Protein 1
Amino acid sequence: MNSDYSAVDIQAETERLHGFLKHVGWSVPECAGIAPKTLRIRELARQKRAVILGHSYVAPEVIFGVADHRGDSLGLSVIARDTDADVIVFCGVRFMGETAKIIAPSRTVLLPAPNAGCSLSESITAEDVRRFRHANPDHSIVCYVNTSAAVKAECDACCTSANALAVVEAAPSSRIFFLPDGRMAANLAPMTAKTIKGYTGNCIVHDCIRPEHVAALREKAGPGACVMVHTESPPEIVAMADVAGGTGDMMKAVKSGRWNTFVVITEDGMTDRFRIEFPEYRIFALGTVCPHMKMIGLDQVLQVLESPRPDQVVEIDEQVRLGALKAIERMFELTGKGKDDSKPHSNTGDVAASN
Ligand code: 13P
Ligand code: SF4
């Protein structure tokens, strides 16, 4: 790419990038190679009053190179709700961009990779939920945030991995239909006196994990390591964990100071974050990647800021949006608005804590 930046600017940007990316194997020349692009993206974001949000699973050159905030699903929804930016560039999968648009309808929400889906989100339709409700009117229906806007609009409350149990406990009925993640439903069941019926969706990333993979890593890490498992994983994997939860819970565990060695059982972007932000700790990981999250690179972020295509602009039918908003607002009401659960890291300095 042609660079309009001075050698001094490029040098400073290279050093900034290398400060992060050296921990995940990037050389100085590799950082110099992307410096004009990250400078241009940040300049365009400033000009367009855009905030760039990045889920922790997205490539490190995006979430450390250009994102204003990086974090988990809950933390990023809170930022989307509270931002005064005109444009939200959501570096994440489609349901995340939809969630931002549901919460912040007056903002332009842009998806760098609009075809980045999610096996959970795609496993269930609004019609499936309507059918269930018709046959089971006594159930409260709780949806994981990994769902389309149309599905959320049919549910009583939304939740994320950071607050699923709190939302289930606060739901009015003692019978819960939890969708679409059957694994998360099974993991929640022993934690509550309520009856939980789960749907059959699963995450293609966490569902491939086998007990022998975790056992081998624990062995390699040695005694005293903390095994952290995402609750999208099967129950037999969660049973092997010292800490089970979402990526925000994992970040809290790493920041707690209780351990210095971690086995990270989730998508590799999270592992990269730990290696970059806590280079003093020993991190062991599976090397599992979400193909959807990895569709988002610097080229896509630059292109969407320069000239978004119509398919990259998130639009939601207003009736659907209002229905989905009710489920999301219910989540914020039931869980104290999520402000204490999950504070994403901020590159702009306006959020004090990080997750
Ligand atoms: P959290 O970051 O909220 O734990 O979600 C993980 C995930 O799979 C997002 O798709
Ligand atoms: Fe969906 Fe799993 Fe990818 Fe998360 S990691 S976006 S749940 S497929």
Protein 2
Amino acid sequence: MNIQESYDTYRKRLFQQEETVEARVAEHLSVITKRKNLNAFLSVFEKDSLLHAKGIDAKIKKGTAGSLAGMVIAIKDVLSMKGTVTTCGSKMLEHFEAVYDATVIKNLRAADAVVIGKTNMDEFAMGSSGENSAYGVTKHPLDESRVPGGSSSGSCVAVAAGMATTSLGTDTGGSIRQPAGLCGIVGLKPTYGRVSRYGLVAFASSFDQIGPFANSVRDAARVLQVIAGKDENDSTSANVPVPDYLSALDRNVKGMKIGLPKEYFSDVLNKEIRSAIDKKIDQLKKGGAEIVEVSLPNSEFTISTYYILATAEASSNLARYDGARYGFRSSNVSDLNSVYTKSRSEGFGDEVKRRIMLGTYVLSSGYYDAYYRKAQQVRHLIQNDFNDAFKKVDCILTPISPTTAFKLGEKMNDPLQMYLNDIYTVSANLAGIPGISVPAGVDAQGLPIGVQLLGKQFDEPMILKVGDFLENNN
Ligand code: GLN
């Protein structure tokens, strides 16, 4: 059994009854144990996942199994799963037990996927390297001296190292696409509102989206099919019909127009990344697609706009961790003020505190107009840039990150360098559009390079189609 094959390949054997879900879960569990030092999981549901697997094996025999029968899935520890601890990678929620299931988890289980465990992550999803977890860093599966990317570090490593068939992550500014790129797998951020956020612990509510990591574009499409759709528990989930994502994967790009934003392909782009992307562009040309230069003139403002708005939203969302209602409470308190101050000082890590301070500052009365309101206005300009570009092209192709996987510790003392790592990914969250990261080869050191495809709002079929084409035409 090849533990890193796509779900589709494994599914065929399952339905021909050449393999069982139980054996598959056992195999993934043994990889989790063997590669414990990668620190990808915060909790592993050994007994429950094996038990659940047996039940699905019986359903397969009876012919009643769902569309994700036997898919073994890992879940970022920012999503609630009833009766299990949901830490968000923070000491603040070390003992917090979720009281209900996130809609995505309910849907996955109804389709007969097996949840194998909850994965490590940058605290409250703030980070680009997997080094901000209160439970230790997650390491890159191909080179343990390097970062796997973040913030969905554990979910990405779980799939890249064969600890699960697929996984769920969240993407507020790149946290699915960037690690997928650095680890050489597929990562999909759907359109804002495409997937219900009910049961997702909020970081920046106008940006957050849930999406899959997978070993193939097709597997990502299968997961999206099950988690997408309107949910009455999330008023921001979109009431837009869910198309058949699998039927979009026809591997035909003839006549399609693919945009290359000139601002993303300047001379500063790393040469190896540029040449890997050029190969993908050639593939598209050979397939009959037309390559068109487009402009996203406000690209230079994306990082500052994102880090103003996301921190503002975070400072408000994280106000609920006050030491009084739930979560960590300092034992060293004397009055109400010290409950707040000490619980928050001891419960949050450095990066989370930095974001709360930045966010509080940009929202404070003297600075609101200069920073927060201005950033809201620039967000509109960035959205308009994409609207204009999509009048000319069907989808946009860009790099995923400025470098391949960097060394552990390399950017930890320089937050600005860490933030700059998100330069190619945050624009999709600012505009609310879907994006996918697809493998595009390796650099001279054998480290993966990813390519990003961006689509119009709700046009996941388009980026999945182009991604599937790129994956299957070398
Ligand atoms: N790296 C970005 C940040 O730190 C994005 C995080 C995310 O997408 N959750 O905010």
Protein 3
Amino acid sequence: MSLKIRVAVFPVAGRGTRFLPATKAFPKEMFPIVDKPLIQYAVEEAVAAGAEKLIFVTCASKSVIEDHFDSDSELERELRESGKIELLASVKEIVPSTVACIYIQQEIPLGLGHAVLCARPAVGDEPFFVHLVDDLIYSQTPCLEQMRRCYEYHGSSVLAVEAVLADQTADYGIIATEEEGLGLSRVISIVEKPNPEDAPSNLAVVGRYVLTPTIFDKLSATDRGVNNEIQLTDAIANLIVDEPVYALLFEGLRYDCGNKLGYLKASIEYGLRHPDLSEAFTAYLAGLNKES
Ligand code: G1P
């Protein structure tokens, strides 16, 4: 099988109920962190790791995501004519012209495993990334690039993991591993959203996966699990019976932008790092601290 990962899948059909009413008519994936929507950070990370085909598993009410990645000749003409060259570059560079975007509708909300299975015809018989847009990761080497390197070394599926507090296991897929060293270990079991007393460890899968296409047969054979949804975790539990699966303790800071506090933290910290804003925003926050 090819060791080059050319495909990335973005499951973006979720309703974002934790952000209602903001998400009533607007997808959470389009929420900005400073000046770029979350989905654009996700796409940039996947493209930087070598993805040439981007598959968005979406739903009818989210056509604005498609609009964001389409070219807009009217806007480009206006920016060119008014000499706003940097802004023009920023809209033209949203996705390189060599990268293909494919949109697949997830007709019924049957969970993450079902969303990934919907992408099967567009992925084909190739390894692929799955990127969950809610998990924004800030790192020197982008997380998917760290995972691509592991995949090219081992030729097996890779899950990004981090340690979470014991009382948070019911929010994540949780793994048990065999030690391998250098942050990489072989997964020996995985379970979706266990209560703390049933969790095999506190190592949680975050929203980055490299999967071999074998996962599709496993997903086809997966019954509904937690929340009455088809869980990717359950299919991975089956995959490890046939193939090695590795867990990577990635380097980086993760922001869970699927909840309000995580989203606010990301906005503040990306604002503090932003070259145009850093100085003024740092001063503003220091002033707030003095007032309180
Ligand atoms: C999904 C997965 C879960 C994983 C998590 C990472 O859960 O089902 O295994 O740990 O993403 O963010 P969700 O956050 O969609 O409930």
